[in-house]
Amino acid sequence: MHTIYTNCRYCESNCAVAVDVKDNKVVKISPDQKNPQTWKDVCSKGLTAQELVEHPARITAVMKRVGDQYIEVPYEQAIDEIAAQLQGLINKNGKDAVGYYYGNPLGFSAGLTFSLGFFEGLGTNNRYSVGSIDQNNNHVVTHKVFGHQFIPMNPDVENSDYMLLIGMNPAESKFSWLGAVSNGWEKARTAMKERGAKVVVVDPRRTTTAAQASEHVTIKPGNDWALLLGLVKVIFAEELYDQQSLNKLAAEQIDQLKTLSAGVELSTLSQRCGIPSDKIQEIARDYAKAKAAMCLTQTGVSMHDTGTIGHWLGLVLDIITGHLDQKGGRHWEPGYVNLSKFAKDDMKPETVSRVRQQPTVMGYRSLAEMPDEINAQGPGQMKALIMQCGNPVISGPDGKALEQAMDKLDLIISVDLLQRESHKKADWLIPGVHWLERGELNTSLAGGMDTPLAQYSAQALQPPEGVHQEWEFFMDLALKMQVPMLGRKGVNTTVRFSRWLAKVFNKPDWAFSPLMLSKLMLLADKKVSWKQLQENPHGVVYADKAYGQLDELLKNAGESIQIAPAEFVAELKNLLSVEDEVDSAYPFTMIGKRNLSMMNSWQMDLPNMQKREQSNCCELHPEDAKALGITDGDKVKISSPLASIELNAKVCDRLQPGIVCIQHGWGSSVFNPKASNEISWQGGVNKNVLIDNKRIDPFSGIPNLNSTRVNIERL
Fold first, then answer.
1. What is the DSSP string of 612-635?
2. pTM of the model
3. Sign of the C-alpha dihedral computed for residues 416, 418, 423 and 426 taken in this order
4. Is there a single domain that holds both residue 129 and residue 241?
């Protein structure tokens, strides 16, 4: 038996793990206690990662659909046939005939650049990402305010005196979201106990985090923007702002915000968000006067059609109080590879979608729009879909509409470890590798750590014989179709030449790969060397934590902070002009929740997760249960204008009356293509079928996943 030190790559926390291996089998996965920081809160997802590697329905060979069956096909043959099929559709219908969707796991793989690079070279506009489910509004806001689409902000928990956590449950989903703090919630609890730091959690549900925080403030789902505008209003009205910070901003934009906030009564904002005016005033005063503070708006804010405005106002709050990028606040860390600068230099003009004219985000359309782009005939209509590490029928809104639209496609290709709900009619199943089976330096997380840390994620297992890494599949397709990888001339020639050299001199590492690209990026930034990473398998802390680096980034890029983008101001005025009406036919608001042991929709098929299926229920308040004649455990029907589902009721006082809670991610099936495509497992009920794919955030395209109106009745 031998031990490999690597990282879990299920989320951006990047927890360090020690993997005991014998005969290419995992004996045990445990926290790597020699790592400087990222191991203390490693969760069961990483510690049971071998369950996916060893899944009985895992795809370990290229599978081609022939009639109602799948047959194994040699990899090279698959490349030839798929390339010909894609090229035929492009020749007949144009480049937009080929669509692409990637899911959450790809974001934590160094092969991301190569997968996306194929479609960049192909030139299709039909590109979709999981970011349109929960995070795109972050990119929209940083783009409009800072001129950069990608700026991870790391919370400086250890030095903060006041933490305002809105729509965030780190006790059950970690202290990370486009910026990670290892063992963050325990550090926050320590700060409360030892330093008297205040942690205020704003959430419609009394989560584990809310129960352990200094204070829990309940809010009406989807109205975070009203609370934040109220805080901004009080700070301007009582002159609690930081004048030095305001001096860096355009005076006319500050005047716009002052005038806008002064023009609305605090009582109106209180009514909209459900928080008393005196509580809003108290939070604003305490926050502004705190020596070190941070406002974190996370997925609970994002997953509404008002999410972009909520994130923007949270950023405004930090800026005008002088807390942004300061000690004890959210700070930007360039990392050992400056991805913010890389994304800025590579940024292309955003376009709008063909059917709805919805803006793209980082070049990708909203998943909510995919059915329209398949159904609407004419130039640009999607005819083929390649899915990588994603299950959009389950993860997105109104999966029934997407599933029906996908029936009209001429070609469906799935690149994944398992055949899930979205892939059940795939024409091709391309096997992938698990992170335990690949070694990589994931530069996309280079600046996403609270303390500057770099670690090479070593390969612990050999993948099944004949299984190629996903990026190789897209690279081989690009070479076969003569698609310029990364959209740049000369890359394909470099790849071919490097492969020739690697073969002639028997040096596999000489072939162009994500790891080679990562090494080149290390050389460019010169923060840490490849030699250092190899000599320190537990990771390298290469610098001290620093603050105020965001100003330097903006200065070097010739940017200044635009605190009041015109589009955001106009949308905020629109929100203020619309009455907050309640539909008597659908009197309840449905929200979601997080669970530390589950990762969105794509791990529900593992034994470690299946035993938690009891969490696939409908929580409701005792008052509502009594009025409806519902008792704990009763079967209930939850309906929206779109559809209905049935679940067991869980009566609890964690919620306010009028709110029901159902966890995101359930409802997928796993198929076994080697056994007549039989269902090997089916997990729960998907709440997203209730969610309208037409009602989305106008900027980010994120659907109303956390504030859909529903009715509930006892069966």
1. TGGGSSEEE-HHHHHHHT--TT-E
2. 0.96
3. positive
4. no
Gyration radius from the chain CA atoms: 25
Residues 185 and 241 sit within 8 Å (Cβ to Cβ): no
Sign of CA dihedral 679, 685, 690, 693: negative
Which of these three, 278, 299, 332, is where a domain ends? 332
Number of domains in the chain: 4
Residue 679 CA to residue 672 CA, distance in Å, equals 6
Same domain flag for 40 and 77: no
609 confidence band (pLDDT: 50, 70, 90): low
Share of the chain above pLDDT 70, in %: 98
The residue segments making up the domain with residue 284 are 153-332
The pLDDT value given to residue 611 = 63
Tell me how many degrees the CA angle 662-666-668 measures, rounded to the nearest 5: 155
- pLDDT 10s digits, 129-154: 999 999 999 999 999 999 999 998 99
Residue 110 lies in a domain: yes
What tokens appear for 575 in the block? 């929100």
> Do 49 and 81 sit in the same domain of this protein?
no
What does the block give as tokens for 257? Answer: 């915000």
- Residues contacting 494, CB < 8 A, separation 6+: 512
Give the span between the Cα atoms of 58 and 52, in whole angstroms. Answer: 8
pLDDT, residue 28, reads: 97
Domain-embedded: residue 621: yes
Q: What is the pLDDT confidence band of residue 451, given thresholds at 50, 70 and 90?
A: confident
Q: Report which residue type is found at 640.
A: S
In-domain check, residue 524: no
